[in-house]
Amino acid sequence: MTKTWQGINDILSRNSKNTNPIQFLNDPNNNHSISSDPRRIATIINEHFSLVSPNLGNKLPPAHHSYPDFLNASDTPITSFAFDLVIPDKVKQEISRIPNGSPMVYLLAPLKLLSLRQML
């Protein structure tokens, strides 16, 4: 897990001491003038990245099928579902398996369960 986070931090340059802030940016909403205002630069970047997903989605061809068309109705009936039985001892066992200090603790267990962990 540590190597995964290290790789993510390397990609994001979080460990780099040689980062250069963006000082100028082309403003597409203002006749492509150059902006040096930090707030406007942040807005330009936010506007750009907020449009990435819709722009990519618009390039996809229309779908002729819906996801249920690909499901085998005999294996997974669309009109029904079931919950597995949850046994309190199994929950305790799973919580106790999470190592102390692991970042997975915060991803896998709600805060209330973590507070009860000391009582296990």
Topology overview:
Blueprint: H1 2-11, E1 25-27, E2 33-35, H2 38-59, H3 88-97, H4 104-108, H5 111-117
Antiparallel strand pairs: 1-2
Alpha carbon gap, first and last residue? 25 Å
How large is the count of helical segments? 5
Secondary-structure-based class equals mainly alpha
Count all strands and give the number.
2
Proportion of residues in extended strands: 5-15%
The level of helicity is 40-55%
Total domains, how many? 2
Low-confidence stretches: none
Query: Could you give a short account of the major beta sheet?
Result: 2 strands, antiparallel
User: Compute the gyration radius: what is it?
Assistant: 24 Å
**Arrangement of strands in the largest sheet:** 1-2
Order of helices and strands: HEEHHHH
Mean pLDDT: 76
User: Outline, from the CA principal axes?
Assistant: flat
Short descriptors:
single chain; 120 residues; mainly alpha; two-stranded antiparallel sheet; 5 helices; 2 strands; 45% helix
Structure commentary:
The chain has 120 residues and is mainly alpha-helical. The chain folds into 2 domains: 1-61, no CATH class; 81-120, no CATH class. It has helices at 2-11, 38-59, 88-97, 104-108, 111-117, and strands at residues 25-27, 33-35. A two-stranded antiparallel sheet has the order 1-2. A hairpin with a 5-residue loop joins strand 1 (25-27) and strand 2. The longest helix is centred in the middle third of the chain and has 22 residues, at 38-59. The mean pLDDT is 76.
